[in-house]
Design brief:
With 147 residues, the chain is mainly α. 48% of the residues lie in helices and 5% in strands.
Length: 147
């Protein structure tokens, strides 16, 4: 089991059997979007309300942050972004070009919101492509500590 981050109230970054990053990459490869969160294949608004967040295989399109969030909670009914997704969001943020020398802010509260905003801005940049988002997730997968 690999551990990378530990902060009170936030799960440490660990590599599960099928990496959260691999699941997020699969979502983005299937359908990537800018200036939005995600779309899913569930038939109706009522179905979405009753069943809670989408399972990764139900997502048709997602932005980078949504793909990471869905992959981290894997469709669980009780989603806590700080607990489930923030370690992965922070890890991907660290893999952005130019962030290597910067310290990541705290994952909770305003610091976590700042990471999400920065990844969202990167995802939504006019020149950004799906291939660049996939490449970032692949880079992040290669950099997950093992051991």
């Amino acid at each position: 089991m690999a551990v990378c981050l530990a902060e009170p109230g936030v799960r440490p970054l660990v590599r599960p059997q099928r990496s959260v990053l691999a699941v997020a990459r699969g979502i983005v490869q299937r359908g990537w979007m800018q200036h939005g969160w995600c779309t899913d294949s569930r038939p109706s608004r009522l179905a979405r309300l009753l069943s809670g967040p989408p399972q990764p295989d139900e997502v048709e399109q997602a932005c980078l942050v949504a793909a990471l969030t869905v992959a981290a909670h894997r469709g669980g009914r009780l989603v806590n972004v700080e607990r489930d997704a923030m370690p992965w969001i922070a890890h991907v943020w660290r893999c952005l070009p130019g962030t290597g020398e910067r310290a990541a802010p705290a994952l909770r509260g305003p610091g976590g919101a700042a990471l999400i905003r920065e990844l969202t801005s990167w995802n939504d940049a006019p020149h950004r492509s799906r291939d660049e988002v996939v490449a970032l997730l692949e880079r992040a997968e290669r950099r997950v500590p093992v051991g």
